[in-house]
């Protein structure tokens, strides 16, 4: 799967082995809460991203369950201890079935 | 002040205050969570627990600039080793329509027990952050955040 054009990240290209790096990522997504109404006063159906994961060479770094209290265009930052060169993979799932993915190549020296 | 009158000035003021309280307690739609509901949601997430204070810190402003996009961080004091790490961080909002905002599941590979994101705040309220450590202990921080413009509705 190609990297989603809805995803923006800030992740270093290189790290020292064992170094703790910050991973910042933002997904363009309305995170429609189900609390809003459209111009005709009809409720807008809820559609939120309810799951997020980060893996490093397929090993879990962090994952999250999100609810309607998470802001639109969810931006997040967290940390990872660098194990080895390879791929950091970020994945977001929304409750309508869409999956957004981003893979970042990192060199660990 | 004639206390023989059917309603004294003080009585009128008290009645006014009482009706103001009654008005402010009129149910609003959508319903907001409260401390008891938040407690129940926390139990659904973590089972039976006795939360201790300390180790977990909410990084929030006293007053939110916007109820729609408020930065929130949770930092836990932990070595994040395989033997001693934070397994989960839960953020709950006592005054939002649904109290659970986010549950984060960490591993020793996370390196540092810290998460940052942005959240919606329906009104001035208390936020809670719980941290579950690998020994099964639950730690909690609770802080008030003032909101002038809520961010959940339309």
| Average pLDDT number of chain B | 84
Number of strands of chain A: 8
Straight-line N-to-C gap of chain B: 50 Å
Task: Output the structural class of chain B.
Answer: alpha+beta
- Tally of helical runs of chain A: 0
List its salient traits:
heterodimer, A: 109 residues, mainly beta, Immunoglobulin-like, three-stranded antiparallel beta sheet, elongated, B: 154 residues, alpha+beta, five-stranded mixed beta sheet, SoxZ (chain A), Ig-like_fold (chain A)
List the helices and strands and how they pair.
The complex is a heterodimer of chains A (109) and B (154).
Chain A: E1 7-10, E2 14-15, E3 20-27, E4 49-56, E5 59-66, E6 75-81, E7 86-94, E8 99-108
Parallel strand pairs in A: 2-8
Antiparallel strand pairs in A: 1-3, 3-6, 4-5, 4-7, 7-8
Chain B: H1 9-24, H2 35-46, E1 52-53, E2 56-59, E3 70-76, E4 86-93, E5 100-106, E6 114-119, E7 125-133, E8 138-145
Parallel strand pairs in B: 1-8
Antiparallel strand pairs in B: 2-3, 3-6, 4-5, 4-7, 7-8
Notes on the protein architecture:
- The complex is a heterodimer of chains A (about 110) and B (about 150).
- By secondary structure, chain A is mainly beta.
- Chain A has one domain: Immunoglobulins (Immunoglobulin-like).
- Chain A contains no helices and 8 strands.
- In chain A, the strands form 2 sheets. A 5-stranded mixed beta sheet of chain A has the order 2-8-7-4-5, with no helix packed on it. In chain A, strands 1-3-6 form a 3-stranded antiparallel beta sheet, with no helix packed on it.
- Chain A is elongated and about 60 Å long.
- In chain A, about 30% of the residues are buried.
- The model of chain A has no long low-confidence stretch (mean pLDDT about 95).
- The model of chain B is unreliable at about 10-30 (pLDDT under 50).
- Chain B has helices at about 10-25, 35-45; strands spanning about 50-55, 55-60, 70-75, 85-95, 100-105, 115-120, 125-135, 140-145.
- Chain B has a 5-stranded mixed beta sheet with strand order 1-8-7-4-5, covered by helices on one side. In chain B, strands 2-3-6 form a 3-stranded antiparallel beta sheet, with no helix packed on it.
- Chain B has about 150 residues and is of the alpha+beta class.
- Helices cover about 20% and strands about 35% of the residues of chain B.
- In chain B, a hairpin with a 4-residue loop joins strand 7 and strand 8.
- Classes of the chains: A mainly beta (about 110), B alpha+beta (about 150).
- Chains A and B meet through strand 5 and strand 6 of A and strand 5 and strand 6 of B.
- Strand 5 of chain A pairs antiparallel with strand 5 (about 100-105) of chain B, so a sheet runs across the interface.
- Chain A: It holds the Pfam family SoxZ.
